[in-house]
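Hey,

Quick one before I head out. I ran the complex with 3UK overnight. Inputs first:
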Amino acid sequence: MPVQPSTLPDGCYNAALDLLDRNLAEGRGERIAVIDDAGAYSYAALTERANRFANALEGLGMHREQRLLMVMQDTVDFPTVFLGAIKAGIVPVPVNTALTVRDFDGLLGDSAARVVVVSEPLLATLAPVLEKHRGTLAHVIVAGSDAHGLHRLNDLLERAAPTHAVAPTVADDICFWLYSSGSTGTPKGAVHLHSHLMQTARLYAQPILGITESDVVFSAAKLFFAYGLGNAMTFPFSVGATAVLMAERPTPAAVARRLVERQATIFYGVPTLYGAMLASSEMPPRDKLALRIATSAGEALPADFGERWKRATGCDILDGIGSTEMLHIFISNRPDALRYGTSGQPVPGYEARVVGDNDEPVGVDAIGDLQVSGPTACIMYWRKREQSRQTFLGPWLRTGDKYRVSEDGYWTYCGRSDDMLKVSGQYVSPFEVEGALLTHESVLEAAVVGHDGGDGLIKPKAFVVLKDGTPARPDLSDTLKAHVKAQLAPFKYPRWIEFLPELPKTATGKIQRFKLRQ
Ligand code: 3UK
């Protein structure tokens, strides 16, 4: 018997029912929800897998509101675990799979997760710190063929019952968290509610992308990012469309293959990838593609990339700004209102304003701080009261971005107001990179700034003062890059290193980063 859609009493709301069971109730159970590297899964099959996972978690003694850390690649197991946990009222916390063991240690501590689900290839990175957290961490589940003596996800699913009585959550219950990096290097857990997922689909994906059940979507941004989670799970599942998932790194070749083989109709990328694809020989010819729309977010899309992509594929790239705190895009270009080099206009349902130091709106064309208001804003940073107070101001949220609005209503990104860099769409704290450089025996001082390598995209650049007596070795620059890569997630390393006799400083000894940026 095919799995029946679960229901909840009036007044209750569970996001997973809206994304899974509703497709069954509306007759889309046999449509394909996910195609991953191993196979295809219908909405009925995925719903049953999520039900089984919810039952398995309850069988392991998990209770509502406990956290489940997800260190997972993009396969069908990701929505199975994420939505299965949500069905049980358990709070999934997906994290960046490129992080280091030190980062995972911090996240296990901050979240006090009771269960971790980890993809087998990532287990080795996580393993050294699991024991340390056994006061809070009760179970480790491995998604893959060999569980190395821990729980194996597929065994748990097999043994669990296929139907599940959904937790009677309400729209305002805590649903999931996503971590966002801060300039201090300690990530902040953005706490999101059950209502937020579908709201991003209703406000952005359905009206702006015009997503329907016949779309096949592919996101180069992974599901653990808020951008990827919306792109490849919430948006397609909100209408019964198909998501193509890929575990490997999004190289131009791997991306081009998915777009062509799966005949994707919506593609979601980040500027660095668009640049790499346009420069590569892997760019598929126009007649091999089925794309009708593409999106870009994470950092500003250089106008030139959009124009060249349009010439090459016939399809526009809609640049839009979103954030982990707002869950998805809140200012965006639209197919019928597009201006390359801008982020477009506020998405209806959101309000945005550009303010001066007094929190009063500035006029047309003046640069100020971007604030946004809307129904998908996270409720707080987990156990970070002071940072929450600084960021969430009643209905408004400080984004940390500088913006300017033109006379005719287009919004243009003008940089960050804090020190954070956006590198390939991901946050990098210059202080964290400086700290890593300073642990090298030859480094006396270091300052890291964002540098445009000529394509309009920012990457970290380091200025380093060496200790007296350091031998002038030609390979020192490569050694320092490797030294940073060994300590931090690889995307954070400085792409350029310049050696200086001293750093420019103010009279009080503060590094003058603006001088280094010039
Ligand atoms: C920057 C942009 C210029 C901006 C995200 C889409 O990037 C996302 O979330 P994060 O929390 O970073 C948020 C910050 O990234 N940014 C994002 N998009 C743009 N700057 N133009 C853009 N189009 O500084 C913003 O404050 O990592 C993107 C959907 C969901 C997301 N979480």
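The mean pLDDT is 96.

Talk tomorrow,
K.
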